[in-house]
Amino acid sequence: MKFSHIALLCSGGDSPGMNCAIRAVVRTAIYHGIQVTGIKRGYAGLLRGEFQNMSLSSVGNIIQRGGTILQTSRCPEFMKETFRKKAVDILKAQGIEALVVIGGDGSFNGAKALWDEHQFPVIGIPGTIDNDISNTEYTIGFDTAVQTAIEAVDRIRDTAHSHARTFLVEVMGRNSSAIALKVGVCTGAENVLLPHEKVNHQKLVDDIQRGIARGKDSSIIIVAEGPVAGRSYEIQQVLKDMYHMDTHVVILGHIQRGGSPSSNDRFISSQMGNMAVEALIAGDYPKVTVVQNGKVLLNDLANCTTKSDHNFSEYQKLAQTLSI
Fold first, then answer.
1. Active-site residue identified among 14, 130, 132, 265
2. Same domain, yes or no, for 272 and 133?
3. pTM of the entire structure?
4. In a domain, 315, yes or no
């Protein structure tokens, strides 16, 4: 099918590099003579008809900007078939023939439903700092989030050393270990606490005291946030009440989601945005742009609709070995 008009949206949490992907989608489409409509605020904006025409100038000077110029949101209503039918009707009424969705597994499930129920052409681009989408080694924003966290931990370590303190530094990622493990290895953290493992407080204390015994006066513990942010405070309380160990908590939070995207995020998201449009033109949909064996490729949308913690779990042993 020859497309003359496509749309794109961002859904779920924002991540650095989304603007790079938007830019690549718009410019590739215009290069091929295809009209592009941007949908503001994700699926919720689609249901409200929040459309804007995208031109070359509308994506100028955005490659270095964090967040998403189209903005994003979460849309519980889209879980219902009646609202998805309404969305397809709205798209068709605007003359839109295909949709590019930048987001995570929830966003892709919405896109898959549009295809399964209405055969509306869709392509997904994985955008989440958590790096937790099945069948891709990489998601847009992960590299920038990790670098932001590394820079923060490096600064915290200066204070930890100056005051001979132990810090629990909590990073984002929900049930994904990826950010915590990479940050832990890259900052030389004394421990990395993963979201799916029960905290062994005694081992944590033993590790800290072992470092003190050999002359180490400060420690950094990287804590993956888990389903609910703030678990570091629970760990801190146990260490204080049961082991009389004074620790300090720093929750990095949403600073990891913002900021100018790294070169890696810019390069990969630009490739993914370009490939998304080329796939639509070739009639190769529903697909998701993925990274496999270091290359940007296409995978079936059905293979990329679940969360996965496979990308960095193999490095847990590395983190443990280097933290002694």
1. 130
2. yes
3. 0.94
4. no
